[in-house]
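Board notes (copied after class):
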Amino acid sequence: MEASTLPLVLHVFDKHYDAGKVLFEELSKKMRSKKAIELEAHLDFFSVYIQLLERVHFNKKKKIGKIFSPFKSLQKNLRKVKHIRFIQEGFTSHMADKGQYSDYQKLISSDKDRVYTEVYELILSVPLHQWEDLYRDIYKFSQGMSILNINTAINQIINEEIDYFYFGTKTRLDAQTISDIYKGLKKVTALEKIRLSIGLNSVFTHVVHQEIDILSKNMDTWYKNQLLLQHLGSHLGKKEDVSKKYQPVLTLLQKNHKELTNAIEIRCQQLFTRMLH
């Protein structure tokens, strides 16, 4: 690897690693949803960076894939913190001022307590030396990369994502496909940051990145609506007799779901066609 490349490619990882470790240590003292959501974003970046290492060192994929193993359960559970926070925000927007949904409010509160406890226990179960082990392994495998390796690997991963995006929009968009595209766009954005950090040009133009940003924001709104709709639907599905007071909220959430899905579908088709050419 060229002498100048290792510090460059590690610099972007270092920023996420340092910030993530600080958040992890703060969360081991006190649970905070904002910090948990920030930590999840850093762990998501680690996942993308490790995928890049797997692609470059394809003959060591199995070994590299194990680097992140101690953090996988934490990453998954941090996502639940984000979900319950979004559900709580949705409740505040659509139902809190009515004062007649106390049974559902209690369920959200109880789910939040359970999720927070699980995450806090998980954080306490990850010894600090696993952070050091993670960095040592990342450093070791990053040494074997050249700018050409990185460029080829990133292009391959991005092309696979776009092919999937394009295929996904050929059929009617369902919730799983939107969710996969949402994650895929985050991955593409992270890979583009790595490219820029080592002096490579961005794969996509500034205009395409602006469109990715707008679509991601639309998907954020869709995602929050979807989580509340699913959570509330599950809650009501367990009741023998559903109170009529929930009907206006359900109708609104279903209407939002349909409108947001249609808007995303149109934007996806325009964006992915442009990304392919």
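Comment from the instructor: DSSP finds ten helices and no strands in the chain. Residues 206-237 form the longest helix (32 residues).
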